[in-house]
Design a protein that fits this description.
Layout (H helix, E strand, L loop, with lengths): L13 E2 L12 E9 L6 E9 L2 H8 L3 E9 L4 E7 L3 E6 L6 E11 L3 E4 L13 E3 L4 E4 L3 E5 L11 E6 L7 E4 L5 E6 H14 L5 H21 L9 H12 L13 H7 L3 H16 L1
Parallel strand pairs: 1-10, 12-14
Antiparallel strand pairs: 2-3, 3-6, 4-5, 4-7, 7-10, 7-11, 8-9, 13-14
Helix pairs in contact: 3-5, 3-6
Length: 289
Amino acid sequence: MKLDPSKAFPHPVLRGGGVSSDYPTAEFEVTITLTRIENTTRLRLEAEFELSDRDLKQLVLERRAAYVLLIKAPKTHVRQRLLSWDDRVTEEFEAGRIAGRTEILPFLVCTEDLVDYRAKGWNEAYNNRRFDIEAGSVLAQDVQKDYWIDRADEAPIGSIFEIGPTKDVDDGCWRCELGEPRVVIRMSSADYERFEEARGRLDGTVEAEYIMNGLYLPVLIHVLHQADGTDGTYSDLRWFASLDSRLQKLGLKPLGTENEDRSLDAQRLLQGPFDRLLAVASSSEEGTS
């Protein structure tokens, strides 16, 4: 359930994001931090609930209401509820459990029926009205938090690239687009068809090294230099995080380093593609002798 300012509730609800009219002087805000546990694909969630209405806070102290996070990750079929009477919540998720687009919806929910209930912080339009509120009903909600949880740093380096056709590139040329979650390599429609045919035919053979050296190596060098020289423009993108993680695991300088020669770094990231290309040439010579 996303926070919808036009949504009607049968009782007053404190809404975050500056859209609450039921509680004109109160606030409900949740700060969430998601971090990868070092050297693993396990995930740690830390949440801090800030609730300023005294009556609602008293309900939490009496355990008649609780803080709730509803976590939804469709890619891994996760729909999980975290409930707490503490305003600080920490939860760890096992490796691979949370991945892809993830929604976290923060609430304050009553845990028992509230009979003839009234809060002093309600809008004066409610005058002296009182409400019977059933257990499980929402008392406060903050805006939905959206995340992209990726395991790109464990995937093959080629997973950061995407190939696509375009009308804006001449035959025999390619162009990089860096503003997407993955680095998009654009080529003409005719070249795209030929490239896909060649990649499918060479996949799993030693000759695939020609594609690695002829396309992916120069693209990677270009991407590394662009990432170094743009002052954090791409730092929120998935490909950037993946490359930065891999560089640091190899003991190389992180992205954003000025005047760094990245050609050798690119070869290390691709595990020595030139050496493997020479091996292809050697095997070809042996086959003709």
